């Protein structure tokens, strides 16, 4: 019997190449947005990277684009940051949710913005919800997933920092994630396991982004 929410199968060579090509070109920072009114014109599809504070969102964008300093990693992201990927797609780096090392009123302000964005951006094609391989799905993740369910935004779980855990531990966490995803109608049926540090899963993720239908 196949497990529900299997790890994404390695795409075929042609799809991997599509992913490589998409990110072989220019990727640029467009702007940082602090209010819905500041979002760029909704003239192309977007994918966003959501997840708890410190889960590795900015690092993953850097790994995908192959540009180390593009998204500011190790630095709490406080804005909605837009990047181009080719001519037809935006990558969106989001502030983390849950605990963040910043004053509470500031955190509350960007949490509100984050929720407005996830619920109200028409061109948002898929949300990647990042889950730390050491921690699995926490209550705040579950809340964001419910919000995506009600907004009918398809989300795909991306496990991050896989290099930090042993295989046995990783498999336990994957099971925990599967259990959590099963409760969410908007969950995409396959997850992607990554390490930005080691480059694991990056060609797969590029390919998934390049071949979104
Ligand atoms: N070992 C390991 N460390 C990672 C990986 N990805 C990110 N990190 C580290 O985790 C920390 C947080 O990474 P960020 O990419 O800034 O995380 P973020 O989700 O953008 O954080 P916020 O913007 O604060 O929400 C940094 O110190 C990264 O170097 C990974 O795949 N492996
Ligand atoms: Mg960040």
> What is the spatial order of strands in the main beta sheet?
1-3-4-2-5-6-7
Order of helices and strands: HEEHEEHEHEHEH
Radius of gyration: 16 Å
* Small molecules (ligands, ions, cofactors) in the structure: guanosine-5'-triphosphate, magnesium ion
Helix share bin: 25-40%
Report the portion of residues in β strands. Answer: 15-25%
Number of E strands: 7
Described by strand count, sense and barrel closure, the largest sheet is: 7 strands, mixed
Low confidence ranges:
none
Structural class: alpha/beta
Taking the alpha carbons of the first and last residues, their distance comes to: 28 Å
Number of helices: 6
Assign an overall shape.
globular
Mean pLDDT: 91
